Amino acid sequence: MTRDPRHDLLFEPVQVGPKTMRNRFYKTAHCSSFGVDWPGTQAHFRAMAAEGGWACVSTEYCSIHPSSDSHPSVGARLWDATDVRNLSLMCDMLHEHGSLAGVQLWYGAAHARNYESRLPARGVSQIPSDYLFVQSCYEADRREIRELQGWYVAAARRARSAGFDVVNVYGGHGYPITYQFLDPYYNKRTDEYGGSFENRARFWLETIELVKEAVGDDCAVIARHALDSLREGGLTAEECLSFMELADHLIDLWDLQLGGVIGEWGEDSLASRFGGENFQRPWLERARPHTAKPIVGVGRFTNPDTMVEMVRSGVIDVIGGARPSIADPFLPRKIEEGRLDDIRECIGCNVCAGRYMQRSLLICTQNATAGEEYRRGWHPERFSPARNAGNDVLVVGAGPAGMECARVLGERGMRRVHLVDADGDMGGAMRWIPKLPGLGEWGRVVNYRRVQLGKLRNVELVPGTKLTAQDVIEYGAEIVVVATGARWAADGLNGVSHDTIPGADASKPWVLTPEQIMVDGKPVPGERVLVYDCDGYFMGVGLAEKLAREGKKVTLVTPFSQISPYSTFTLEAPRLNRLLRGLGVELLAEHMVTRVDEGAVAGCHVYAADRPLEWEAGSVVLVTQRVSEDALYRELVGSEEGLRANGVTGLYRIGDCVVPRLVADAIFDGHRLAREIDSDDPATPLPFIREHRVLRATDEEFDAVLR
Ligand SMILES: Cc1cc2nc3c(=O)[nH]c(=O)nc-3n(C[C@H](O)[C@H](O)[C@H](O)COP(=O)(O)O)c2cc1C
Ligand code: SF4
């Protein structure tokens, strides 16, 4: 296939100071938790984006000095020659694919925990972090400011020697000290670095100038800059634009983002429930008249027509992408090759950010290979032919795990793959979850796989077919994969009391499960509804929102210390709280339900069980826990003889029918099994490279795990 000429514009080169981007795609800085201690994972992960066509690929935020250490959160570091060595692999690999390597210099000040280095954090003014607990800094004096700027310069020089082409003097999100000098919310100084806008701008401006002097002939010097702090009384959008004018002569490219409230960085990485593609456009439009330099803008871009329109109308010059590049590192290449229906579009769930927020390794709902490029040797677009491809495979259950497994098995050339589901269509729970308020884009999980499965001649969907164990045994497939999913408990079984709830019985008209509401259309009686959420993610809040929008008076009760605690990780919590409060939903954190009766629910505060409470409620929605639908698998396990007699050589289970987890985990599980279907024991995952220090080990010994 060839590129649609309408998209040619996206493949024009862009001059960025002394460097040239081969096209207009820029993978913006984003955390992965690979940092410098997992150099192979870091390099192979970023290099996949370079191979997929991103002309410039950046590290995550990169600490310039031990007094800015984010441990246990993991960023990159350029503290010394060992970091240079580890990051140089990433630079080399990006260069092999013709991409520029970018690094984002960061000094966190009040937001630097320094749990590893144990050094005091140097800051603008002595005000505690608004992001972390028990965390403050000391106000840098003039000598310390000079020294700090010297650390920036030293880190920039190290970046150059590692092979970086683009040095980004990070100033966005409220996270680095550069931003904190600029914003009066942080900057309370009375010297020449505080007070007036010009004074507040001085530190960042001087620092950019010093970095430019040091490496500007060899590297492009760019700045990540906020378009607006979005904070009442904080840095205004006008001041942000004024800074662009002040620094424009020093900057080779502006890398723009939205928001300066670090605790609400979900305004930049906006979840799809709150906004769609190009949500930053209104702010980006205002930036253009204030610079003569190229602008990178972000906004979960996945549609090439939107991208072209943004460039053609002059709003931006370069398409920035963090989440779209995680979900599909080959996005530019697919546009270039005119394979638009192969694009694996980001769904805006922010599970990627969620893992970083939990101090853990990057994962992606849509892209099971993200982060697995090195340690498992997975390529998102390439699949090796299976050694046992002569087998037929029956996948029972066409939810996310089953679909992904069938897709990868199909790509690996299995003779015939039948994807059978009792439902009339594929998707499993992901057929109805996108119908919850705001989650429409989650439907991309099914859409992408539907299109891909449709292209595989060896994969057939068999809908509307409920198989018994005997049917499975006699189906004629050598390999059976059970992916029958999970359902919400109908009796209040939950992880708090580890028990059911007396009176909670969804066969009663006034007790409902999520499926009964969303799939069966069971009526929700009464004006007052109590949603009991022991799950802590999207289901409880989603149903509360839906019912409130339908005119119910909703009380959301949760045993956790805040509603939907997982949404803090996915950056949705601040807006979710505002949304639900705005809809009049009563939010009761740290409360438990102990009994359900018709018209009333009994409960208590989690720390005051001796003081019972009662809530009036016409109906109760149980979002307590999911239970694996594993009866078919268990019956098959007990039918060893029948399986053997009918030539079934492998029986496996994947996804929620093993353990109900995130959709990302279900997809990963299906993907993993299909990648390893020809191993000696596919049920047991193959070992993967662990990048930890092994005394006297060589690089070859690390890599040997993959061979
Ligand atoms: C997991 C994750 C980590 C991020 N880490 C950084 C970071 O270290 N530095 C930064 O400037 N922006 C960071 N961002 C913000 C992105 O660069 C980007 O501005 C934002 O996600 C909006 O772009 P998108 O819609 O293309 O994702 C991060 C985003 C995500 C999703
Ligand atoms: S985890 Fe979700 S938001 Fe993040 S890149 Fe993947 S699909 Fe997009």
Protein model, in words:
With 707 residues, the protein is an alpha/beta fold. It has 3 domains: 5-357, Aldolase class I (TIM Barrel), CATH 3.20.20.70; 392-485 and 629-675, 3-Layer(aba) Sandwich (Rossmann fold), CATH 3.40.50.720; 490-627, FAD/NAD(P)-binding domain. 30% of the residues lie in helices and 18% in strands. The chain has 22 helices and 28 strands. The strands form 7 sheets. It has an 8-stranded parallel beta barrel, surrounded by 5 helices. Strands 16-15-14-17-28 form a 5-stranded parallel sheet, with helices on both faces. It has a 5-stranded parallel sheet with strand order 19-26-20-21-22. Helix 3 (142-162) runs parallel beside helix 5 (197-215) and helix 12 packs parallel to helix 13 (444-455). The longest helix is centred in the first third of the chain and has 21 residues, at 142-162. It starts with 13 loop residues before the first strand and ends with a helix. The model has no long low-confidence stretch (mean pLDDT 97). It binds flavin mononucleotide and iron/sulfur cluster. Flavin mononucleotide binds at residues 28-31, 60-61, 104, 170, 172-173, 224, 257, 268-269, 298-300, 321-324, 352-353, 356.
Compact description:
The chain has 707 residues and is an alpha/beta fold. The structure holds flavin mononucleotide and iron/sulfur cluster.
Write the layout of secondary structure elements.
Blueprint: E1 14-16, E2 19-21, E3 25-27, H1 39-51, E4 56-63, E5 76-77, H2 81-96, E6 100-106, E7 122-123, E8 138-139, H3 142-162, E9 166-169, H4 177-182, H5 197-215, E10 220-226, H6 237-247, E11 253-257, H7 281-287, E12 295-297, H8 304-312, E13 318-321, H9 323-327, H10 331-336, H11 351-357, E14 392-396, H12 400-411, E15 416-420, H13 444-455, E16 459-462, H14 469-473, E17 479-482, E18 486-488, E19 511-512, H15 514-520, E20 528-533, H16 538-549, E21 553-557, H17 566-569, H18 573-582, E22 586-588, E23 591-597, E24 600-605, E25 608-616, E26 619-623, E27 626-628, H19 631-637, H20 640-645, E28 650-653, H21 663-675, H22 699-703
This protein binds flavin mononucleotide and iron/sulfur cluster (SF4).
